[in-house]
Amino acid sequence: MKKEVVIIGGGPAGLAAAIEAAKCGAQVLLIDENKRPGGQLFKQIHKFFGSKAHNAGIRGIDIGRQLLKETEECGVEVWLDSAVIGLFADKKVAVLRNGTTVTVEAEKILICTGGAENPLRFPGWTLPGVMGAGAAQTMINVNRVLPGKRVLMVGSGNVGVIVAYQLLQAGANVVGIVEGMPKIGAYGVHAAKLRRAGVPFFLGHTIAEAKGTEKVEKAVIAKFENGQIVKGTELETEVDVICIAVGLRPLSELAQMAGVQHDFIPELGGWMPLHDGDMETNVPGIYVAGDTAGVEEANTAMDEGRLAGVSIAHTLGYLKDEETVQKKNEIKDRLNALRQGPFGERRLNAKQRVIEKGEAV
């Protein structure tokens, strides 16, 4: 089976890329292992903020619905409940679909498999009730299931504080936010909501132990200095859920399988694929975008997807040079704007290093 463009992953980056390439005339197949595309957007019930160009005032779930509508209008072919189990440098994709393996040969491939939550190991971390913040967010916002009534959140980045607030909205009692650093990692606008709701922040603390027999019953936290727990500072509280929000890492196994060169970039999640300014890797015809290309946030993922979609359409002959340059410049300006300020500058510098290394390969 032959397809012109295959996009692996139907999250923000994959959907945006599919729309951009299909609008230019490319024939696009979008593959996602879930029963519904949209990825993280359908967990995000909060409103985005920033500029109009970055969907300010619009909830993530509504952005997802709009992207799905556009993929239908553009004629993107979508395979759901289909898992890509193999990807090769000759641009062949092995897909487990309807119980059988199908091999698809593509001219261009875009990998948008997203990111995975980092684990945190401590005594009792395998007890039922210890889960990633993303898992809790899926339960409350997608499956409408409350994971527990008393929740401790470990990690004060945007994911931790946003999910903690959504747990409050769903009816849980968030007993605290534990953060190993001396300051909150999230945007102030998110953290302020929790403080107004009376949720305490334990800065310079970490989770020391989860206690329980068949499930989590208590959490022990303690002060954290120089990478060590300070003995004698332990605090114990009753909980039935401990959520872990200590960062994401790029899911790049398929890129590795295809021979894409990787490097360790801590600011973007760790081990990740290198790519050039057009999102193309060292393997010609294989592109990456979104959290696979370095963990950032949804608007960045969508614009990286659009950049990859434009680049693919151009190399296939669907866009003229002048129009391509204009579209790319518009997208890159938005990406640079997203990476400004105290939170974005490190990512901007890291992304520039990725591109420089990718172009040098």
Structural commentary:
This protein is of the alpha/beta class and 361 residues long. It folds into 2 domains: 2-116 and 248-360, FAD/NAD(P)-binding domain (3-Layer(bba) Sandwich); 119-244, FAD/NAD(P)-binding domain, CATH 3.50.50. Helix content is 33%, strand content 27%. It contains 9 helices and 20 strands. It has helices at residues 12-23, 60-74, 133-141, 158-170, 188-196, 253-257, 298-315, 321-338, 341-360, and strands spanning 2-8, 28-31, 77-79, 83-88, 92-97, 100-111, 115-117, 130-132, 150-154, 173-179, 201-203, 205-211, 218-225, 228-229, 235-238, 241-244, 248-250, 262-265, 270-273, 286-288. The strands form 5 sheets. Strands 1, 2, 3, 4, 5, 6 and 20 form a 7-stranded mixed β-sheet that branches. A hairpin with a 4-residue loop joins strand 18 and strand 19. Helix 7 (298-315) packs antiparallel against helix 8 (321-338). It is elongated. It starts with a strand and ends with a helix. The mean pLDDT is 91.
